[in-house]
Amino acid sequence: QVQLVESGGGLVQAGDRLILSCVASGHTFSDFNMAWFRQPPEKEREFVAAINWKGDRTYYRNSVKGRSTISRDNAKNTAALQIDNLKPEDTAVYYCAADRDATKHGRLYVAPSEFDYWGQGTQVTVSS
């Protein structure tokens, strides 16, 4: 069974930087595409960023593009999301997710339905 555990959330101020981490266990991490999603209060879960299994392709939602970086370390089974210049609208529960079929289909998906494993989430609250 694959387990994903996020950490790094908390209460921050607008303009701050935050780094979220996701540690995976239970499978060959380097086979997975990884992604970050978030669910703002009273809203649907939305895609934030994704990185392919090799770490050489990334994709971001427009609202975080240019101020966020997704990365991974396959040797440490970890993925990370750094967001700079945080805004109140970044307030959400952040989830990491893994696509276990990445090496088969070769695509970088953004829909939650394409991801097989999810962490429990970490709350990020940005005060203005």
Describe the structure.
This protein has 128 residues and is mainly beta. 3% of the residues lie in helices and 48% in strands. The protein is built from one helix and eleven strands; from the N terminus they run βββββββββαββ. The chain has one helix at residues 102-105; strands spanning 3-7, 10-13, 18-25, 33-39, 46-51, 58-60, 68-73, 78-83, 92-99, 117-118, 122-127. Strands 2, 4, 5, 6, 9, 10 and 11 form a seven-stranded mixed sheet that branches. Strands 1-3-8-7 form a four-stranded antiparallel sheet, with no helix packed on it. β5 and β6 form a beta hairpin. The longest helix has 4 residues, at 102-105. The radius of gyration is 14 Å and the shape is globular.
Number of strands: 11
Estimate the helix proportion, in percent: under 10%
Average pLDDT works out at: 95
Unreliable stretches covering 5 or more consecutive residues? none
One letter per element, helices H and strands E, the order comes to EEEEEEEEEHEE
Outline type: globular
Strand content: over 45%
Strand count, sense and closure of the main sheet?
7 strands, mixed
Structural class: mainly beta
How many separate helices?
Answer: 1
Question: Radius of gyration in whole Å, from Cα?
Answer: 14 Å
Distance between the termini: 40 Å
Provide a short characterization of the protein structure.
With 128 residues, the chain is mainly beta. It is 3% helix and 48% strand.
Tell me the layout of helices and strands:
Blueprint: E1 3-7, E2 10-13, E3 18-25, E4 33-39, E5 46-51, E6 58-60, E7 68-73, E8 78-83, E9 92-99, H1 102-105, E10 117-118, E11 122-127
Parallel strand pairs: 2-11
Antiparallel strand pairs: 1-3, 3-8, 4-5, 4-9, 5-6, 7-8, 9-10, 9-11
